[in-house]
Amino acid sequence: MSELYFLDFRKKQKENYLNMLEKLIEAAGGLGILKQKTPVAVKTHFGEDGNLNFVSPLYIRRIVNLIKKYGAQPFLIDTTTLYSGRRFRGDSHLELAKEHGFDFAPVIIGDGIHGDEYFEIDGSKIAIAFKNIDTMFCISHFKGHLVTGFGAALKNIGMGCASKGGKLHLHSRSRPYVDKEKCIFCLKCYNYCAYGAIAKEKSHVIINPDKCSGCAGCMSVCPERAIKFYWSAASDEVQKGIAQYTAHIVRNKKIFYLNFLTNITPDCDCLHTSEPPICADIGILAGFDPVAIDQASYDMVKKEIDRLRPDIDSQVQLYYGEKFGAGERRYEIKNI
Ligand code: SF4
Ligand code: SF4
To answer: Domain spans of the chain?
Structure first.
């Protein structure tokens, strides 16, 4: 059974939330994974342009300062996205992170400018920056999600540490295609593709799925956003993939997890807007098991999440998370 620690926002606390967050991390033993003069990846989500629901940089700054005080060397990290937006490419993602207040530590976009820098574990395409990092703080915002029912630690790791091609793999298990109406035949993708998978037609290009590796780099270099993919995978398939990626990524790493059950919105922080929350703030959970912390988070908001998306069984990610060895679903909670 995994041990989790809980800071309950529904009760009056002795000190302000930032001080209590430090106490939560200390009580849960989060600092125990740190080594002096060693890099620590602080994996979070900087929020899409127009979104205000992501975990506040004030909390993350406090965590970063705590890690620094210990003598370790924290940096913030996220990856490029599949959907169009300012997080689609590494350079604009960095700029947005700064605008959203994440300017107090080095920021790295783990899969590079075009999202095509990755390594593979059993077919999972993982952002290259995670290859030689063995210590992480994973800071996740618990909220609803259109495809997976809810998203928190498993999604932050399994999807959030995947490269652009990894996300493509998770979302559709298919290959990209060219929308010929939008293609201006500039050949940027043709010159970019290292697999010779893009062929010229008369006035547009096409992708040969037999040669395509699914790296998704061509999607980034296309100035017209003419390269697309089918968001066709069903929820269960995406959740299973997220669990598989998570199990690959967490293996041999020391990771401390914090789930923020605050601003619990119907959809994820990739939206270009903010939405009203589906319930009042609950608090912060902490621990070392991504499956247990997500199970406990889900159990606290089960009614609202299930009502939001009655057709999705959002516990599929928890089932496979445990099955693939990322953690266990049984937990006990200690209040601080
Ligand atoms: S066509 Fe396929 S292999 Fe070539 S850049 Fe695009 S995703 Fe990568
Ligand atoms: S980069 Fe985009 S617009 Fe240019 S040829 Fe490729 S698909 Fe067409």
So the answer is: 2-170+232-335, 175-228
Q: What is the DSSP letter of 224?
A: T
> Which residue did the predictor score with more confidence, 45 or 225?
45
Q: How far from chain centre, in Å, is Cα 149?
A: 15
Q: What is the pLDDT of residue 136?
A: 98
Distance CA 292, CA 272 (A): 30
**CA-nearest residue, atom 8 of ligand 2:** 183
Would you say the CB of residue 30 lies under 6 angstroms from ligand 1? no
How many Å lie between the centroid of ligand 1 and the Cα of residue 197? 6
- Would 2-170+232-335 and 175-228 be classified into the same CATH topology? no
Taking the centre of ligand 1 as the mean of its atom positions, its distance from the CA of residue 81, in whole angstroms, is: 16
Q: Tell me: domain 2-170+232-335, CATH 3.40.50.300, correct?
A: no
Q: How far away, in angstroms, is 175 Cα from ligand 1 center?
A: 8
What CATH class has 175-228?
alpha beta
Is the pLDDT at 181 greater than 80, yes or no? yes
pTM of the model: 0.88
Pocket test residue of 88, 114, 175, 178 for ligand 2, highest count of atoms within 8 A of CB: 178
Question: In sequence order, what are the residues at sequence separation of 6 or more whose Cβ sits closer than 8 angstroms to the Cβ of residue 207?
Answer: 175, 176, 177, 178, 197, 198, 199, 218, 227
